[in-house]
Amino acid sequence: MKILKTDQVQLLDKQTIDNQYISSFKLMERAASKVVEILKDRHKLYHNSFVIICGKGNNGGDGLAIARLLKEAGAFVKVYLHQNKKYTPDNSQNQEMLDDRGIKIEKFLPSKHNIVIKKDDIIIDALFGMGLTEAIDSEWKQVFDLLNTAVCQDRISIDMPSGMFADIATANDSIVFKADMVYTFGSPKLALLLPESAQWAKDFTVVDINLDEQTLSSFETKNYYLDKAIVKELLHTPTKFAHKGIFGHSLIIGGSYGKIGAVALASKAALSIGSGLVTAYLPKCGYSILQSTISEVMCLTDNEADYIRLFPETDSYQAIGIGVGLGQNADTVKGFAAFLKDNTNKAMVFDADAINILASDNSLLKFLAPGSILTPHPKELERLLGGWTSDFEKMELVKGFTAKHNVVVVVKGAHSEIVLPSGDIYFNSTGNWGMATAGTGDVLTGILTGLLAQGYNSEHTALIGVYLHGLAGDFVLEDKHPHCILASDIINKLSSAYKEILNLE
Ligand SMILES: NC(=O)C1=CN([C@@H]2O[C@H](COP(=O)(O)OP(=O)(O)OC[C@H]3O[C@@H](n4cnc5c(N)ncnc54)[C@H](OP(=O)(O)O)[C@@H]3O)[C@@H](O)[C@H]2O)[C@@H](O)CC1
Ligand SMILES: [K+]
What we know:
Number of domains: 2
Bound molecules: ligand NPW, potassium ion
Shape: elongated
GO molecular function, one term: NAD(P)HX epimerase activity
Protein name: Bifunctional NAD(P)H-hydrate repair enzyme
Keywords: ATP-binding, Isomerase, Lyase, Metal-binding, Multifunctional enzyme, NAD, NADP, Nucleotide-binding, Potassium
Catalytic activity: (6S)-NADPHX + ADP = AMP + phosphate + NADPH + H(+); (6R)-NADHX = (6S)-NADHX; (6S)-NADHX + ADP = AMP + phosphate + NADH + H(+); (6R)-NADPHX = (6S)-NADPHX
GO biological process, one term: metabolite repair
Strand order of the largest sheet: 8-17-16-15-14-13-12-9-10-11
């Protein structure tokens, strides 16, 4: 799914009205009724009251229409409207429709407001949406302080949390509504996908309002929301004549004393995602552990007992995943550098200490084979690139890195970002907070290695792998609370994830 910029969203809005022969009021009504349908699932309409805070524009118009539809559905609503000289036509029309139905609209000024929130209330924020052009003035502070601190049942934003920009950074000290849930129209907005926005948008749902498909497909974008449709297009379908040679041989290099489990997880994940064969290369101390943990994985050991000094030959393998549990022993670091220089044409998956070693010696980066995949978590990324002042700046830094080194970077996080050498970014739509636990990164490394081994190019590998990893994590939630997720649970659900994408029972 494409992530659109503000001007594209506005054009899409207009083109939808033109091409579908509908009025802008009708489109607003469509948007509002979709939100009300979703609200019926989220809340029992009779149990709570909705306090709807509306602005002067079409975001406010949405709020007014939602108020009317909620009232018609039997909910108790209280409507506050920013007092203004001018409202958009659809906003005005919705005010009249509320008047006609005897629903009172309380007008307020930001500097002098009469808003009251009770503990059973659900706040709906419809003050500013995509029309926000500048940071909200401090005269609004007391209104937002009240909305953000009042004890209530739920905080919902329409389209965007008011005060938050959709595609540029919002300063940390800005006045912004803090939403538990954002119902955003048509496509996710870029800012909603970035970690720094979590303080204002805990979660979001894309509300499909049947915007014009033709216009949508004509838009150019560098940013995508990685969804099932994209991944389904990329997956190969094996034939009945397939044999294990076709599915490739993966080599997982890693492990050090006390960190052999990481290799076990990555190796098992590589097998479970469909690599025909998997060999693990690890220090001697890991031999018995690995052989007894996973029968299907072959094992090669270094001469050292507790860490890796000499790295293996790679000719027999279609894919290599390196770094899980590796440690940074001085001999390992030296061996790793020599290994990189010997394998400048072999795209690999780099994780954990392999990334840390690259970060501590930038001169090694030029030896990265084109098409390699790096999977840093935020701390590892910071070591690799230095700091950044906003997630928007971080994206630009990563894009510079992927272009310079011709590699793919997977920035791990709530919506993991897959940054391609072209500068295209895919934000993952699967996964959950329970996956932020030990070993899930090792599992991802194994998945990516196993996909590379099967002949996917590195870009497709990263897209398929990150999506499946998250989806498998979501399947774990069928029987476990997020707190209880283990990395190995994700491996066990890879099959369900595959079946879901291929629509198999
Ligand atoms: N696109 C779609 O597909 C659909 C869109 N829909 C809805 O329309 C919404 C966009 O509506 P919108 O364009 O009327 O702007 P909105 O967000 O209501 O802002 C209101 C006005 O506030 C002003 N303003 C700006 N910054 C300010 C500030 N810092 N402090 C004070 N004022 C400030 C600025 O006016 P100005 O002051 O520049 O005259 C702006 O015009 C969108 O988010 C969605 O909810 C749906 O109905 C249907 C489908
Ligand atoms: K809003």
